[in-house]
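Researcher: Let's continue the batch. This sequence belongs to Mediator of RNA polymerase II transcription subunit 10, and it's 94 residues. Same format as the previous ones, please.
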Amino acid sequence: NFIVTGLQDIDKCRQQLHDITVPLEVFEYIDQGRNPQLYTKECLERALAKNEQVKGKIDTMKKFKSLLIQELSKVFPEDMAKYRSIRGEDHPPS
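Model: Same format as before. Here are the C-alpha cells for Mediator of RNA polymerase II transcription subunit 10:
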C-alpha cells in the first residue's frame, strides 16, 4: 500500500512537472551512484573553462587585428587611411 500511495502522489505531481526536461547524463550519474548535483557543478565548470578558452581566442584575434592594421598602415598608408575613415577611426593604432 505504501508503494501504491507513493506512486499516486508522484502521478498527482506529474501535471506540475510536465514541461521539465532532465538531461540523460543526470540519470547516468544516478545509475553510477553519484550525486546528480555534481552534474550541474561539472557543467558549470566546463562552461567556465570553455568561456576562458573563447575569451583567450577573442583576445588573440584582437591583438592580431591590431598588429595587422599597424603593419598594413606602414605598407599601404593611403589605403589604410581610407579604411580608418570608413570605419570612423581618426588615428592610426599605436
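Researcher: Any comment?
Model: The mean pLDDT is 90.
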